């Protein structure tokens, strides 16, 4: 289209900006005071927004133009600098130049820093703004350490096997590999858009055969050492779905998918003997730099306790001892005389043999109900303890008393021996049960404190058995009972653990195949030879549950049926797969040497890079993932694969980012609003969501703007699709840029604390970045663009500038290394505030600041570094170091007196001259009203102590008033001249 220049008259406000409308000539004032005329390109004439413009009508309403102007101004405010150009530019540069690649061969004389994010699972939903919190933190640490001269290993990969992908595949008929690879691509794209400095050359995924070959190899090492075995254990079986379900798929006794009843059913499974390493897993916690709360969670999960294993003979119907005994474990053998009944788990192996005929039906009914409950519900969530009498009795070995045997679901078959001796006088759980079922309660400890861990034993003597512990302390009595039990064959000392061996098999398709075959017609297992690895997962079109309990892999007949290579006999492969935890147990080692096809990791590389220096992830992985990883690592340590006892030197749990605060009002049956503090009293109320613009804060509460008497319910929830509070980082990046998102997530609050997302809060850090950009690059041109260079000068910096810089360096460095990222940002904001007051911005001050900014906002920092005059990336520039000489506080507070009366104070440097002190006092807002326009008789100055200004008595002004003088004298005062010069020219 040809461009024609035409002169037209548009009725536009004089304040209308020509920046975005291709206006060629400057505006010319018309006689009408409200409008201006422009020369406009014809091509732009009809593209101008506003419903008032058309080919035949060039007159636009003022309202339309103002609306368009407001939209443009909003866009300019949000786009405070050209992040939309800068960020893609530098992401492309980093990728093309492989800026963050860690070479295979490095200078090992340099210190190393291995920083790692917990292995993410690439879900179909992609990232939400909660995910980049930890990733940004590790990236800041990685960038800092590179600039401090470390060899940095900062990789990323995918924990890509697992249940969610398989469930989605079943529902949609799409192979899980297709959806998983698609999700990985989406995650990778999103992470790259945020500028994380990962070494993408080391990217790994658990679904790749080159990776899970070594997961299978580790399983074979466990098998060789007796740490992997098969046993029949109870699993979650759903008869309607015809499949075994993982614990997380069962909610309140029914399947999460479909709501079908789930029962506990014994099945033969692969199990890993993690209990073999229980003591080492406990002891070595003392050697790692982890949060104490996290270590305590692991200690509680392992649950080591010392006590006694005691034998209670079962009695027949005639009261005679049978040749079968119930074994119990107790941490309080000192209270055994107070054991008035036994409790067996519903799944206890001896239960069928001791139930009386009269009680058999009731016991079976109770078992059926109990086995439908999850272990969590049976133990922690079930407030009321239930049970049923078995009809059988056992003999208490220390006093010969016959005591009843009960069945109760608060005892688990998987913990201890699956049976307990109940001492209702000294255990609240047992006491509640005894009171419910009218069972005798016998005190045996005279308590010295409420815990009854200390006290004196009573009612605990029997002549027939020869055991008397009356009068002993609890500790002494426990030792004597154990000694008696071992001498008489009634028990022994025992150390027990809450930790259970790890159920390792899953009746699922989408997982690592277990490298074991079974000889045809037998249950004898034969491990594959290591040279046959990897055993790859066969392609299946039908991966739905079989309905029989057999795993989906059993459908791959040609893959399942094989031959034992050593004997030539027919064999079948194991059709269960490994759990999702398997690949994530050791992936951190593979990042050290991801392309090695001959061994899991090269020993030289492992000795240099291990252990992981900083490992960042959510607290939800505090127990299982970290415990399983530590277990596998110790096995690998024992066989010489790794050189350190622990995999992760320092673990940091980032806080959760909750969705934006949601406000809810309560209404009564008549539709009237009711204050939330009154709803707790009585009645049922309807809840209504209230938009933020209708809410105001009142004290510590939120209330309706239109009726402050109505207090609202305000709460932030974890981000989830169901709540509709998920914030997509792509949207934030599009509107504010990746650097703003990174900076905001670090600025929200302490890294380890819970935080609430507030999209409007990001505007503050976005403005900070915009101010930083304009300070260094300069103000925007009339068309909204910026000059290519910068306004940085080569002048020598002042002492004030150097002090501001080095205080900022010291603070930012200290706060990054302490993962107090929010206060590091505050220090940079203070520097920028100070720098805006300077007339000049020397290179030797601005360049170090850009380097300080770079770990937080790498895209902007790279661009600023380039515009200042550097041709290379700043990624490996030396991080600034604070000079202690500039950190000393050499300022003092100097009192200022007027005619002997103290009127205020000022900050001055030590050794400040009288003239400089007086100049600073004259500039002080509070003091200037006493000094401006007055005659000074003399000044009395004591350096570092005081400045006393004596005014001419005839010209002393009253506080806040001008002295009595003529107008001409006022005109000659400097403040008056400045005031007149600042006034705009008369419009008349």
Provide structural commentary.
It catalyses: tRNA(Leu) + L-leucine + ATP = L-leucyl-tRNA(Leu) + AMP + diphosphate. Pfam families: Anticodon_1, tRNA-synt_1, tRNA-synt_1_2, tRNA-synt_1g. Keywords: Aminoacyl-tRNA synthetase, ATP-binding, Ligase, Nucleotide-binding, Protein biosynthesis. Its EC number is 6.1.1.4. The protein has 988 residues and is of the alpha+beta class. 32% of the residues lie in helices and 20% in strands. The strands form 13 sheets. Strands 13, 14, 15, 16, 17, 18 and 23 form a 7-stranded mixed beta sheet that branches. A 4-stranded parallel beta sheet has the order 5-4-29-30, covered by helices on one side. The protein has a 4-stranded antiparallel beta sheet with strand order 9-8-12-24.
Question: Largest beta sheet, briefly?
Answer: 7 strands, mixed
Cα separation of the termini: 46 Å
Q: Find the count of extended strands (DSSP E, 2+ residues).
A: 42
- Low-confidence segments: 1-60, 957-988
Helix content: 25-40%
Q: Output the radius of gyration.
A: 38 Å
Mean pLDDT: 85
Tell the overall outline.
globular
Helix count?
Answer: 31
Instruction: Specify the structural class.
Output: alpha+beta
Task: Note the beta-strand portion.
Answer: 15-25%
Enzyme class: ligase
Catalytic activity: tRNA(Leu) + L-leucine + ATP = L-leucyl-tRNA(Leu) + AMP + diphosphate
Domain Leucyl-tRNA synthetase editing: 299-485
Family: Belongs to the class-I aminoacyl-tRNA synthetase family.
